[in-house]
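Entry 14: structure prediction run for Zinc-type alcohol dehydrogenase-like protein. Input pasted below.
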Amino acid sequence: MKAVGLLEYLPIEREDSLFDFKATKPTATGKDLLVKINAISINPVDVKVRAPKEKKEETPKVLGWDASGVVVEVGEDCELFQPGDEVFYAGAINRPGTYSEYHLVDERIVGKKPTSLSFAEAAAMPLTTITAWEALFERLAIHPENKQENNAMSILIIGGAGGVGSIAIQLAKWAGLEVIATASRSETENWVKQLGADHIINHYEPLKEQLATKQLLEVDYILCLNNTDQHWEAMGEVIKPQGKICSIVENEQPLDLNVLKSKSATFVWEFMFTKSLYTTPDIMNQHVLLNKASEMMDQNVIKTTLQEKLSPICAETLRKAHAKVESGKMIGKLVVEGFEAD
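Run finished. Output tokens:
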């Protein structure tokens, strides 16, 4: 089967940073599905894993996590899917990725593809949807069924125009919260406004002063999707006493937790690969939430965040896609679709 891999971790401008090769088509066993890949989405995690480092691989390493496609085989322990089912998912960080014609994935982290979306539109959604869903409804413990109660609550989403922010805004509005999103350019401001943000501020300017102009002195929740180190002190300033902060961006410097002590505020990380990496008892939650999100997409409660589409799936195209994501100026999601026929 066709695949795209790497042996060295090189700058994306290098032609050998990603290369095409032929791999052996795998076989589904246990709880694994074998999926024929139709479209994949490129995320910041793809870029981070590929980023230059000294390490070298003995055999080609295949990156890629977001995908949509069709099930062609099921393992003997599978109960959720059958061959012919159209699916979407975000994969596992510790297994071969989706830059390949066929891919093995544990059915417990796979969802039914929204019928109203194309494979490309669906491939844009899984990783960011799981991340936003877990951050809001598991880590921050927001209860979407309590919409009336949530109407009195506010959330600040730092980095609202990216892939996760684009979903988080929609989910937070669905749950009934007042949403303040950050954006730093006119095009990103327009994007978050279209997604339903109630207020827009700039994450390059002081947060507290900007919130004050919106008659908001403090917020109940913060979801940090942009530079935890840069915003740490400001988040401590604007979080309400007993409020909750969640971040998905690793820190480079030690974080002073004393900033949160007097407010008894909570800080928690979200990493959507945790369940698959450790095979946690609640790993099936990702299957359940993807199916629920799929229904919401079919009902137009959540809109696809696909903003750019490239083809075909090959090393040259993926190098272009990585460069775009690496620029840090992406709005929504970028998808690459379709392997060329032999």
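Notes: The longest helix spans residues 126-139. Will compare against the previous run tomorrow.
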